[in-house]
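Take a minute with the sequence and fold tokens given here and flag any structure token that looks odd. Thanks in advance.
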Amino acid sequence: MNGLSVKINEALKYFLPQSFETFVHEFIRFLSKNGRLFHVDAVGNWHGKNPERPKGFNEEEIDAVAVNKKTHDILFAECKWTAEQIDANVYNELKRKARLVQWHNNERHEHFALFAKSGFTDEMKEIAKKEGVMLFDLEAIEEVLSV
């Protein structure tokens, strides 16, 4: 690999995860329009503060949050563009961060989704079945888009 190829490869490692998040936002809208998800009024990233952590170390982010303002449905999603399969720790971290989101806390209907380049561990697949977590790897995304 020449020097330019190395630089491009390094740049792609930075841009692809961000592009994947943007794609996921649009994919969530697609799911909503095609009846595979509740009607989505808005979707985007969420940034907030964790009051249990010291100032300067308390920033939190969720890759995608989608809401229906009328029904109070809310979807929390994480996007991982990595070579590793996603395990339960990513889901557990997402649930922890979801509790920080101040939006109709006592009357909202929470939904969770994980989007992963490289799929999910067997443990995460079992949890998803039990708890109704939507899992989308590249194959599942392709399947939805091909219908």
